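Lecture 7 notes: from sequence to structure.
We start with the chain below.
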Amino acid sequence: MNTTETNPIYGQIARSIEFLTENFRQQPSLADVADRANLSEYHFQRLFSDWAGVSPKKFLQYLTLDFAKKRLRNGQTLAEAADAAGLSGTGRLHDLFVVLEGITPGQFKQGGEGVAIRYGLFDCPFGPYLLGAIGDKICKLEFLDEADATDAASLATRFSAEWPEARLLPGLEELRPIAEGIFTLTDRKPLRIAVKATPFQLKVWEALLKIPEGQVASYDQVAIAIGMPSASRAVGTAIGSNPVGYLIPCHRVIRKTGLFGNYRWGATRKTALLGWEAAFFEKSERAK
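Predicted structure tokens for the same chain:
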């Protein structure tokens, strides 16, 4: 059974975002950025705008330190954001459509013995990703580099450390309906996540779900939200071990200085995720 479904468009976008991130202080021209993507200015402008929903120039604004610091200063606390969960539109929180639960202690201890996990390789606006699910519950969303995504036979081995006793089954067709509902910011349907986690990790990941799209929080803010203000370092470790990218939005946590910082699946992808969501948020606010 086929386990892959990808296309290479993110590679071109990623090269330009990397260039913008490294050179935003110099405000590079459209020609400079298009050259980085090996495209003409016209084709690059159209490709980038189709991907991000805004022009490269506007996207560049979202990469500045001033923009990130403003988001941190003006952002609600996670508790305040949770209280706003009844609002529609951009006030709607991530945790309204993502339900997070830990697997049973017995399954955790036994390494997934008796659990069947279907997996497949899909494509999204941020490149190829490995998706795994236990029934209709997502247990894995791992972004991949293009080189990693070419070897379909090795995909199952990525589960071995986390689920050594689970039964792994290729399941592209079975997973497609789930995949189609992940990378969308409109017309969402509820998604369920099942993770192997310690109580502390689960608490941190639940806090991340309360960060709205287009907003960010610092590690310190997350530590305060879980009632452990001195545990920002441990919070960072828990965030770095998140097995379900994007849906558990660890990309929305940045340093309190405004710098985006590291990301398990690459700094460029984190920048792309934040800019993409910021663009949608800004457009939604203007449409009100």
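Points to note: The chain has 13 helices and eight strands. The mean pLDDT is 82.
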